[in-house]
Structure formats: structure tokens, C-alpha cells
Amino acid sequence: MYENLIRNYVEKMSIEDVKKYASIKNINATNEEMQIVYEFIKKYYMKILKEDYNFIEKNLKPKISSNLYNRLLILLNEEKRKYF
């Protein structure tokens, strides 16, 4: 059930949605990093949902700051606990 809701949201999600959410969560990142995160979510949201941390680390971590990467992992775990 949640997967369908998430898929529908991700299909409609914009870069502005990502920036707004990051702002709400006090996440600081460059515009370039936000674009990378946005594209990663759009392309690999199922890997994120399935918690494929090896894939995420290999394909996202080298492209963004370590501080942002660590903050995103914490946020992912917090949100998954809340909703799943």
C-alpha cells in the first residue's frame, strides 16, 4: 500500500519539494547537491525503500558531502520508523 502512495508522490515530486523538505528538516546543501539528491530519489526510490544501503553508499555518497549523506541516512531511518 505505501509503495503505491510513495511511487505516485515521487512521480509528481519536484526539485522544489526536495528543497522545501530539506529546509523544514534544517538540512543545508548546495543547489548542486539538492539536484543530485532529487535525481537519485526519482531514479532509485525503490532501492531507498528496500534499504539497499550498499547501493545507496556506492551511488550517492561519493557525489555529496559526507555531512549531508549522514544527515540523509538519519532522516531516512527516522521517517521509516515513523511510517513503516
Helical fraction: over 70%
Rg computed from alpha carbons, rounded to a whole number of angstroms? 12 Å
Helix count? 5
Overall form: globular
How would you describe this protein?
With 84 residues, the chain is an all-alpha fold. The protein is 77% helix and 0% strand. The protein contains 5 helices and no strands. It has helices at residues 2-12, 15-24, 31-49, 53-59, 66-83. It is globular, with a radius of gyration of 12 Å.
Question: What distinguishing features does this structure have?
Answer:
mainly alpha; 84 residues; 0% strand; globular; 77% helix
Task: Describe the secondary-structure layout.
Blueprint: H1 2-12, H2 15-24, H3 31-49, H4 53-59, H5 66-83
Give a quick precis of the structure.
The protein is an all-alpha fold. 77% of the residues lie in helices and 0% in strands.
